[in-house]
Amino acid sequence: KKISLLQELRLFPEAILYIEGLLKKYPSATLRSTLSELKLESARYYNNTDPYVLYQKVYAANPGNEEAFTFLLNNSLSKGYYDDAQELLSAALKRNPGSKDLLLKQMGLYEKINKTREANNILEKLATKFPGDADIREKYATILLQQGKDFYQDQLYAQAEPVFQKLARTPGYGELANDYLFGIYAAQKNYPQALSQINSMIARSPRNEEYIVKKSAILEEMGRYDEAMEISNNLSQRNPGNTRYKNIYVGQSIPFIKQ
């Protein structure tokens, strides 16, 4: 009677424990059979009441159901079932490839499984598609800056240049990116390009004396000593207490005299 009552109340764990206790005292084939049947009934019951199973059924019938999709995706991610999560996201992105929310989720999954290149590709797509999103723009700029710095430090100037060109178009990063571009052209001894770059930088920040010094240095490298000396001499006269500018002028005058 107790077993039947527990079974009717769907208290399967209690019923199973009760039968297991009875089996220890009164081993019998009938009790073992009852226990086996009860476990099967319990499995069927919980399978039909498990939210994950229920949401799977809803999603299978209607893949566009947002509630079911979100539950299944979050469940997969929280439990580390990344293959399941990728399957869900791939199917959803086929239906809605331009979804900002789905792309962010896909990027997050790639980051979890250390697929850095794929995550960065998604981030670039997001930054292009949603330029007004400050968070996306800032994250993309941060990654670009690190990529560019790594290329620059490794003297991979051909790879660094397009990265800093992209970064130069990002609000808040233009000055830094342009400075790196100038450094790239100077390191490559592409002096005409370096001169063009520094001229555009000076046009935007005419009072930046570091830019003016760099222009003087490039002109010196190009053998245009008279122009280089004119710049350094003007800086020295405007800043009489700054010996650095005077030393630059004197240093440039030596090769000029030897011409």
Quick tags:
mainly alpha; 259 residues; single chain
What does this 3D model show about the protein?
This protein has 259 residues and is mostly helical. It is 81% helix and 0% strand. Helix 1 runs antiparallel to helix 2 and helix 8 packs across helix 9. It starts with a helix and ends with a helix. The mean pLDDT is 88.
CA radius of gyration: 35 Å
Overall mean confidence score, pLDDT: 88
Q: Distance between the terminal alpha carbons, to the nearest Å?
A: 115 Å
Helix content estimate = over 70%
Structural class: mainly alpha
What is the tally of helical segments? 15
Order of helices and strands: HHHHHHHHHHHHHHH
Strand residue percentage: under 5%
Q: What's the β-strand tally?
A: 0
Q: Uncertain runs with pLDDT below 50, 5 residues or more?
A: none
Layout: helices, strands, pairs:
Blueprint: H1 2-8, H2 12-25, H3 29-49, H4 51-61, H5 66-78, H6 82-95, H7 100-112, H8 116-129, H9 134-153, H10 157-168, H11 174-187, H12 191-204, H13 209-221, H14 225-238, H15 243-258
Helix pairs in contact: 1-2, 2-3, 4-5, 5-6, 6-7, 7-8, 8-9, 9-10, 10-11, 11-12, 12-13, 13-14, 14-15
Short summary:
This protein has 259 residues and is mostly helical.
